[in-house]
Amino acid sequence: MTTERETRLGTVQETLLIPLYGRAVESGKEEPALSDPRAQEIVAAIDYDFARFDNLPSLVGTVLRTALFDLWVSDFLTEHPVSTVVEIGAGLNTRYERVDNGRARWFDLDLPDVIDLRRSFFTDTPRRTTIAASVTDDAWATSVASKAEGPCFFAAEAVLPFLQERDVRHAVDLLAEHFPGSLLALDMAGPGITGAQDEHDALSKVEARMQWACADPAEITGWRPGTRLLTSCTLTDLPARLHERLPAAYREMLSGLAQQRLVQVDEYRIGLFRLA
Ligand SMILES: C[S@@+](CC[C@H](N)C(=O)[O-])C[C@H]1O[C@@H](n2cnc3c(N)ncnc32)[C@H](O)[C@@H]1O
């Protein structure tokens, strides 16, 4: 195990500790929605006041979101065993540990200080490469395009809402131009959420704030003719095959939540797009 490591992360970079902690806490439960022993190890090794996030409803939300991204990436790898998965804004995400198929090529991209921290926990291999760059930099896309194998899946989990809309558009253009036909999974927070972040249970505990409000996935398809929304859902409207395998207590909690019609739930949407 790595010795306890002090984190000196930038403002938006610090947000990676929320889903990391969510997965670690979840893994300690008797009946978890997902198991992530690596996240538990990493949390134990990082010197940070994680207790500020204890018992926040958002932690479970991050776990459910990750379970959905995992499902989509697994489906993609089943359909395309020799392919490429790119984690955009990877943070200390451990999707590779959960769903890798032993054949695909993986890239984990994040800002330089995050990659520095990430490198103390994960080692590059011939199939797994970390990249220190902003998603908005053109150079990484050129480099990945030259190394990618087969079709590509881009997973941007809890990343793009932190960018300005013009940067989100630039990132989508960059991906579509370098990787036409590839899949992009991302999450969208509507204006009711971005306008109330100071009251958000987890974001109110950190400095970072979301910059991009997106009320409807059609805004994204409208940016690029030919880009299609394949599917989208909220956390209370997860695909049946994911919902069915959640612990009973979660299924019950989600059906109760669905009836409350909360802005924080109804305006938070996760979408899967095919880029053109
Ligand atoms: C909430 S965290 C999510 C981390 C990871 N996707 C997960 O689900 O565990 C947001 C991540 O986006 C990264 N990020 C923010 N702006 C970025 C940019 N312009 N380029 C690349 N990564 C960025 C942050 O550094 C951070 O790791």
UniProtKB/TrEMBL annotation:
Any one GO molecular function term: methyltransferase activity
Top-level taxon of origin: Bacteria
Gene3D superfamilies referenced in this protein's UniProt entry, alphabetically: Vaccinia Virus protein VP39 (3.40.50.150)
Keyword annotations of the record: Methyltransferase, Transferase
EC number(s) per entry: 2.1.1.-
Top EC class, one word: transferase
Record GO biological process: methylation
Sections of the chain in a coiled coil: none
Pfam family, one: LCM
Record keyword Iron present: no
PANTHER family: S-ADENOSYL-L-METHIONINE-DEPENDENT METHYLTRANSFERASE YKTD-RELATED, S-ADENOSYL-L-METHIONINE-DEPENDENT METHYLTRANSFERASES SUPERFAMILY PROTEIN
Protein name (record): Class I SAM-dependent methyltransferase
Organism listed in the record: Streptomyces lanatus
